[in-house]
Amino acid sequence: MEKKIRIKDIAKMAGVSAGTVDRVLHNRGNVSDDARKAVEKVLEQVDYKPNMHVSSLSLKRKYRIVVTTPQFSEGAYWESIHNGIRNALEEYENIKVDLHVFTYNQYDIYSCRNVFEKISSFDMDALIIGPTFKEETIELCNELEERSIPYIFVDSTIEETSPLAFFSADHYKVGRLIAHLITSIIPEEANIGLLQAVRTGDCSANTTILRKKGFTDYLYEGKKNNQVITIPFSVAQPEENEKHLSSFFKNHENVGGIVVMNSKGSIVSEYLANNGIENVKVICMDVTIPNSAALKNGKIDFLIGQGPEYQGFYAMKTLLEYLIFRKSVTLENYMQLDIITKETIEYYKRFNNLLR
């Protein structure tokens, strides 16, 4: 990908501030002759061609954009989506954006409701939503549509809504892919553990519902005889997770593998390592820091990557181009699915590296 020259890059090369470069580009005063010459020299060297139409529009107004997603920690899946959003804002740095971020606990339906209630009356031009709970998301989207506020989904989409676009993996196919992989590397009659989150409000995430449907459909259509046993896990009470896993292994023999249909695969890999359990295959989602470490150590066999950085980047890019140009938008934008192993993790391209 050809690197785009940004105002901050020109400023660094010319030894001046980004504000000075902006004043030179738009022929505004308060620039010394030396600084102007330095900037113009760099502009000539890099053959810089500013988009004057975008620049003039961006000077006239500021766009107030809200992003709401589950809470996240460093190196986690949702942080990658937010990194992609920030990268898009850097690419469009000449557009004035007033960004407001609202996060909620994805394991607590009441946390989601409280945050969505605040957003529903917030003054904004557009919204990017990372949905978890279906009914809460539908209610928020209905209110947005009444106010004629465009919105885009990342991570998944929700039926009975009318987003401008969505950027997501096909979660039904994710489930089928996980089923295909796990049944390919365990004995035909082996039991499969399925780690499932315990959520306050007793409501499964929309992505989990779709993945489980794809998973069970694949097993049924392929006439697979593996018994699937659900293993609960809790983010709010992590001390309970070892009890749940111990109970699973105590009460079930012939366990061939465990699948985790979210990014919490390291919960299983740590338990297996700490208890000296061998020959149990593990498949989970997302290239997080703990999952990557477990993959390298052979405690996770496959990771499924769903391009969270690309989702965030193209969601914000699409939203900005729609707001400014009313550019036509493609509704369905499914990300490619990457099957990552310990042999390939070092070569897995991170989105940030492509932009720098």
From TrEMBL:
Entries under PANTHER family matching the protein: LACI-FAMILY TRANSCRIPTION REGULATOR (PTHR30146:SF144), LACI-RELATED TRANSCRIPTIONAL REPRESSOR (PTHR30146)
Name of the featured protein: Transcriptional regulator
Record-linked Gene3D superfamilies: 3.40.50.2300, lambda repressor-like DNA-binding domains
Keyword Membrane carried by entry: no
GO molecular function: DNA-binding transcription factor activity; transcription cis-regulatory region binding
Residues annotated as domain HTH lacI-type: 5-59
Entry keywords, A to Z: DNA-binding, Transcription, Transcription regulation
InterPro entries: HTH_LacI, Lambda_DNA-bd_dom_sf, Peripla_BP_I, SBP_2_dom
Domain of life: Bacteria
